[in-house]
Specification:
It is a single chain. With about 425 residues, this protein is of the alpha+beta class. The chain has 16 helices and twelve strands. Strands 1, 2, 3, 4, 5, 6 and 7 form a seven-stranded mixed beta sheet that branches. The protein is globular, with a radius of gyration of 22 Å. The two termini are about 45 Å apart. The N terminus is likely disordered.
Length: about 425
């Protein structure tokens, strides 16, 4: 089977004035039953802006699909993204078949619809270049949530958190056999704590050229070019100095610098072989979990664009640090940043009661994993604010210091997680 199918078109594919017309041209290339209708998908995220609901068939035979164009400005390796996605889905299907009745009918991986030529995705080509499209069955009877606050009632929120923990464990068990070494990172430099710290060091020194940043840049040429922009300051000299000398930021810069050795621990444990390198999801925010609309049970983990080699502790840490943060990521009053240990416990309970393919050494690092990912994200926001918001770009309605406060929130959360470290360890021990 070919990896893609080429389609020639004289019509523009990029900068579409009529996106639905584009969807209409593309959807006919997939193996779905006519008649087909395309609608805008209002729940699309910030990355893949060309996402559509495709309605196939008529009457009782109607079925909904999602048609999506991969954003190549973000994901510059679309074939690698799709290769990892198809490998992940195949691993889930294969292991579900082995699981028998335990998960059958409960967990439902995404299903890709092949093109009419039998390829798992579509390469659409015209004079402007190539774009990459995929069509997926829209899993029926599911709901998503952006945060736990959307759910009425404390007990219901804790139950959903437990289900999210279960979902991450199920996903990890079903994908544990994947060959992580064969995967190319979809975002060069992503989740590389050493690169993030070197970027912070570079912008604190005020480096604005490749030559100035040279000693801190990655040695790998492709990685170097992919990440170079984020090693450099993109602000006028006066504004650079103002941000760097901001007294409210200085304690957080000091905290980040003093914590570098600790931040590197997960990477060093992987390099030593103490913990496994597996194919992680890479973006375990709550709204990437699907839950049954009637049962409330976790159904699937979607948005499979950032599958990459790492430790599952990064997925665990990212999920937990985002859900236990009472204040949210954009809070400007740092006194409100607290850790909800009941949510922490629910996540741990759901994960550890379910996970079958984790090691004792990995479990011992679960508390550290949450702290490290909060610290790492704080460093990323901090470096971005200091260089001029080149990565976490601001919208016109965003305050100009939003990444500063994002950084301070994550670094304060890191401190709060450390303060609650003993309680967190008791929580993990209870369910391990």
């Amino acid at each position: 089977m070919n990896a893609f199918i080429q389609v020639s078109s004289a019509e523009p594919v990029c900068g579409e004035e009529v996106p639905l017309a584009l969807a209409g041209r593309v959807m006919s290339q997939f193996d779905v039953e006519a008649p087909l209708e395309a609608y805008d998908f209002p729940e699309k995220g910030n990355i893949h802006q060309h996402t559509f609901i495709i309605r196939s068939g008529s009457g009782r035979n109607t079925r909904d699909y999602l048609l999506q164009r991969i954003n190549q400005q973000v994901f510059t390796r679309p074939r690698s993204v799709m290769a990892a996605m198809t490998a992940c889905l195949e691993a889930q299907r294969k292991n579900l078949a082995r699981e028998g009745s335990r998960l059958q009918g409960e967990w439902e991986p995404i299903r890709l619809i092949p093109t009419r030529g039998g390829a798992p995705y579509l390469e659409h080509e015209n004079r402007r270049g190539k774009t990459y499209w995929r069509m997926m069955v829209r899993i029926p009877g599911c709901v998503t949530y952006k945060n736990l606050g959307e759910i009425p009632g404390r007990e219901a929120r804790l139950a959903l958190a437990e289900e999210a923990g279960r979902g991450l464990a199920i996903y990890g068990d079903l994908t544990a056999d994947m060959d992580a070494g064969s995967l190319a990172s979809p975002l060069p430099g992503y989740r590389d704590t050493g690169i993030y710290y070197n970027q912070l060091k570079s912008v604190l020194r005020g480096n604005s050229t490749e030559a100035e940043a040279g000693p801190l840049l990655p040695s790998d040429e492709e990685l170097r070019q992919s990440t170079l922009r984020h090693f450099l300051v993109h602000l006028p000299e006066e504004e650079t100095a103002r941000r760097r000398e901001d007294e409210t930021l200085r304690p957080f810069i000091d905290l980040a610098e003093a914590s570098e050795d600790y931040a590197m621990r997960l990477l060093l444990e992987m390099e030593s072989g103490r913990i496994r390198t597996v194919a992680i999801h890479g973006d375990t925010k709550l709204d990437n979990f699907l839950f049954g609309s009637r049962s409330g049970r976790v159904k699937s983990l979607v948005d499979l664009d950032t599958i990459m080699p790492h430790t599952w502790l990064a997925d665990w840490g990212d999920m937990v640090r985002s859900l236990v943060n009472v204040a949210g990521e954009k809070e400007r009053n740092l006194d409100r940043v607290e850790v909800d240990m009941e949510v922490y416990e629910a996540l741990a309970r759901g994960f550890l009661r379910t996970a079958r393919r984790v090691t004792r050494d990995e479990i011992e690092l679960m508390v550290d994993g949450v702290q490290i990912i909060a610290l790492e994200l704080g460093v990323r926001f901090l470096a971005d604010h200091l260089r001029g918001d080149s990565y976490f770009k601001l919208n016109l309605t965003d305050p100009p210091d939003m990444n500063k406060y994002r950084a301070m929130v994550q670094l304060r959360l890191f401190e709060k997680l450390k303060e609650n470290g003993d309680q967190a360890r008791r929580c993990i021990s209870r369910w391990a």
